[in-house]
Amino acid sequence: MDTLISTFHIDIKLLIAQIINFGIVFAVLYYFALKPIISVMKNRTATVEKSLADAKKIDQKMIAAEEEHKKIIAASKLEAAAVLQAAEEAAESKRKEMLNKAKEEIGEIINQEKAKMQLEKAQTLKEIKREVADLVVASVEKILGEQVDEKKDKEIIRRVIK
Amino acid sequence: MSGENIIIEHTLFAEPIYQIGSFNITNSLINSWLVVFVIIIFGLLLRNKIKLIPRGLQNFFETIIEALLGLADSVTGSREKSYKFFPLIFSFFIFILLNNWLGLLPGIGSIGQIVVEHGERIFVPWFRGGTADINTTIALAVFGVIASHVFGVIAIGVWSYFNKFVNIKSFLEIPKKIKANPAVILANPINAFIGIIEIVAEISKVASLSFRLFGNIFAGEVLLASIAALFAFGAPIPFIFLEILVGLIQALVFSILILSYMTMATAAHAEH
Fold this sequence. Notes:
The structure holds two protein chains of two kinds. Helices cover about 95% and strands about 0% of the residues of chain A. The mean pLDDT of chain A is about 90. Chain A is built from three helices and no strands. In chain A, α2 crosses α3. Chain A has one domain. In chain B, about 65% of the residues lie in helices and about 10% in strands. Chain B has a three-stranded mixed β-sheet with strand order 1-5-4, with no helix packed on it. Chain B has a two-stranded antiparallel sheet with strand order 2-3. In chain B, β4 (about 110-115) and β5 (about 120-125) form a beta hairpin. The interface of A and B includes residues 8, 18 and 25 of A.
């Protein structure tokens, strides 16, 4: 051991001095270089991981939103179709109703007109008859040139009319 | 000059340049201080420049740190452990690397003073590679091995850690387990003996770490000086590149070994 120490000049004071040197190196490297660099690297890793996770989350949310969107559109399409159909049906029934009503009204009007025409016809006929009778009387008077008595008159009229 | 030859010899030890009381400031110590100074300057420059979004130099350091962390992962097996050990391991790596490389600079080992000793004029260089001195390497090895023990105690507790070496537990277990398995009466004393061997292993760790590093770097300096003595121009260049590589490899070997000691120390003792 003694020869070892004397050969290599092992000196406990130098040993301690070198340990102190290394301690200083370690402290400097640790506090000024490694600690900040490693913490920054860890932070960056965490940040990148978080951003990636966030991006994934956002993607998922977008997909979900799109699906929701599609669902809503489909639902509203269905609803719109239903509303449209209902409206069509309502319009159809309304149309029919109006048609019926119109028909009824027309029928009524026709009936009224018919009745009126009938009445007018009858009246016209009556008038015509009277006019004809008058005409006949006048013509007969003219033909006979004289007034016939009541009895004859009546007979002639009857004959004419027949 | 009286015509006497100046003796240039490569001593195994670092030579004292100046004395403060009984404290010898050796040429190796001066080199180590240079390294410490360089690292402090570097640390101060880097201090407030580290940003979340890296720019310029920070990118370069992060790349290196990321690569070394990957290397550390292959030893520790988990990023968590790597983060815990990395600052110390990285400090070892940088300190040893810079010490190794600083010993290769021109002027280191060739600038010095002539000291008259026993009537002989001896050349004493002012600078000598920090790791070409056994004191430095022993200091680093002791620091590293003790740090691995500290990490071990923190990780698995004082009692468990103590029983890795002085295995009292294995004797206490014998009465409990003997009914289930009579072989424990033989196996557990063997385990206890293995624990004692572990103590020897710890001492040999310090010895192997320190002498490997010292030997490689010192041999490299001697090699360079010898080649330069044979033919000073051009011939040493390939060897200088070789020594740059050796310096890097030795720094890496030292750090990886300390890391593996830490990993072993923090692993819980395998229970059958």
